């Protein structure tokens, strides 16, 4: 199996478990991940996971220190990081969860931080970009921005878990959404039971 290189970003939308589940699986399989977390994303990690965020990147390094994959953390304001350049080669970028503010800035080519700049690079270089929005209800502005990005080749994967596999807990719902993203990344997994058709 060829080890791949991904950029994974987490924003201030509720749904940090989706991003952590994706990171768990990708790093467990030995892939390289360049990680970004917005300021609001750190707030969500504190609210949803109780993380004390003074140490920031050390939290992730401690969590994944025994994983075979390589984790590289980039501060969100480091606009000169390697991933900000079109010469940086990677297989795909995922924003999970993706706030509507971040989605809107990407849709309009605004690069006010490293996440938005990196997404802009993915678009201009015609590389796979996957956004996992987590918001409801959706306004016409949200829908228009998603349509605009979809027409540019971006994969929009709303955090909408299925129920055909009769999930028994929240973890199984999270695994379904993260698994759908892994499918787009062409990373094999067994995070959820696939539909096998009627009997």
Automatic annotation (TrEMBL):
It comes from Lihuaxuella thermophila. Belongs to the UbiX/PAD1 family. It comes from the Bacteria. The lineage of its organism: Bacteria, Bacillati, Bacillota, Bacilli, Bacillales. One of its GO terms (molecular function) is carboxy-lyase activity. Flavin prenyltransferase that catalyzes the synthesis of the prenylated FMN cofactor (prenyl-FMN) for 4-hydroxy-3-polyprenylbenzoic acid decarboxylase UbiD. The prenyltransferase is metal-independent and links a dimethylallyl moiety from dimethylallyl monophosphate (DMAP) to the flavin N5 and C6 atoms of FMN. Dimethylallyl phosphate binds at residues 164, 180. Pfam families: Flavoprotein. Its EC number is 2.5.1.129. It is an enzyme of class 2 (transferase). Residues 4-184 form the Flavoprotein domain. HAMAP family: ubiX_pad (MF_01984). This is Flavin prenyltransferase UbiX. FMN binds at residues 12-14, 38, 99-102, 134.
């Amino acid at each position: 199996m060829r080890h791949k290189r991904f950029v994974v970003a987490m924003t201030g939308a509720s749904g940090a478990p989706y991003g952590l589940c994706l990171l768990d699986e990708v790093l467990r399989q030995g892939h390289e991940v360049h990680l970004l977390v917005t300021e609001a994303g750190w707030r969500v990690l504190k609210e949803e996971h109780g993380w004390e965020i003074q140490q920031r990147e050390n939290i992730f390094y401690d969590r994944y220190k025994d994983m075979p994959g390589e984790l590289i953390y980039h501060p969100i304001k480091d606009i000169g990081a390697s991933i900000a350049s079109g010469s940086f080669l990677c297989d795909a970028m995922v924003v999970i969860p993706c706030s509507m503010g971040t989605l809107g800035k990407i849709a309009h080519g605004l690069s006010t931080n490293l996440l938005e700049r990196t997404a802009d690079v993915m678009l201009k270089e015609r590389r796979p970009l996957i956004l996992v929005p987590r918001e409801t209800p959706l306004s016409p502005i949200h829908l228009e921005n998603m349509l605009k990005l979809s027409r540019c080749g971006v994969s929009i994967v709303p955090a909408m878990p299925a129920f055909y596999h009769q999930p028994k807990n929240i973890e199984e719902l999270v695994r379904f959404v993260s698994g759908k993203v892994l499918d787009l990344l062409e990373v094999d997994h067994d995070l959820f039971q696939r539909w096998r058709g009627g009997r």
